Structure prediction request, 368 residues.
Amino acid sequence: MSFPTLNIGDLCAKMPIIQGGMGVGISLSRLASAVAKEGGIGVIAGAMIGMKEPDIAQNPIEANKRALSAELRKARAATDGIIGVNIMVALTTFTELARTAIEEKADIIFSGAGLPMDLPKILHDACEEKKEQFRTKLVPIVSSARAATIIARKWLQKYGYLPDAFVVEGPKAGGHLGFAPENLTDPNFSLEGLIPEVVEAVKPLEDKKGGAIPVIAAGGVYSGEDIAQFMDLGASGVQMGTRFVATYECDADERFKEAYVQAKAEDVTIIRSPVGMPGRALLNSFIEAAREGAKKPFKCVFHCVKTCEQEKTPYCIAAALINAMKGNLERGFAFCGANVARVDAIRSVHDLMQSLQQEYEKRIALKA
Prediction:
């Protein structure tokens, strides 16, 4: 049995796989369009997307908007598949980037790292001001049924709008995590437990919407067997990040990708990010130096995240991630998912998607 489709409103992905948005240059138009060509949903990450623009420090809003527009247009030129954008609520440019994504006709906005309470207003205002009916789907990223319910209630009360889907991100995800550090290994917060809870919470919302609100599993999803497992729990699809880093089409430097291939289980660590959240990353000399107090507070140039307290933090998260994306890992570090040690080679997006489908089919056949 081949993959079922993933339907988000009138969008239909042939493969129920969303490539996770990986910020600061890891998932841009090249990776996103490659995934979309294969029938999945490709996602461009908005975080510091304007890092290569000459005026990024002097004019970050316009630089990031310009870069997002350019990446969306490049992706559109490369494929007619589904292209989304990941925009963190915590970004200082959140509203401007969301508005840009809508006006550039991105198919979907995925939004986490905070609750995107006013996202429908941004869509509504764009439609009103441009006198055009933009059809961008709005998909919050949540870590609990409670968060999903709070967002849906607020959207419905204030804007008469319900989410088009939810991504449920568990504690095995890469990058910044929506959990307290002590909950990351607590079985009560496992993705396997979260998915049925959110699916149950969404059922009454679907009645109000008059249509399906898909729940998408994210965080630690690695294989086709995993995809089948989460679909058995009620998910309509999955979001995967780590697997797509180790592809030829990933927008990161080859040295970044090789760090994934060479990673061992003991290399994975939890950091306290300057933005105030825990994050999962590959341990290296940069992280060790920060923990030992060798890094000192800095003068902020980018002002990229609202929650960053530059006077207290030992390094610039944006600069560290930019360096890593460029392959300069001695001056930064790589975020990663919990299963990064299972990555053993760099392959094409096509081969990865095909192998996931074969693993899924094998799992389904064994159950039959």
In short: The longest strand covers residues 137-142. The two ends are 10 Å apart (CA to CA). The chain has a mean pLDDT of 93. Residues 261-331 form one domain.
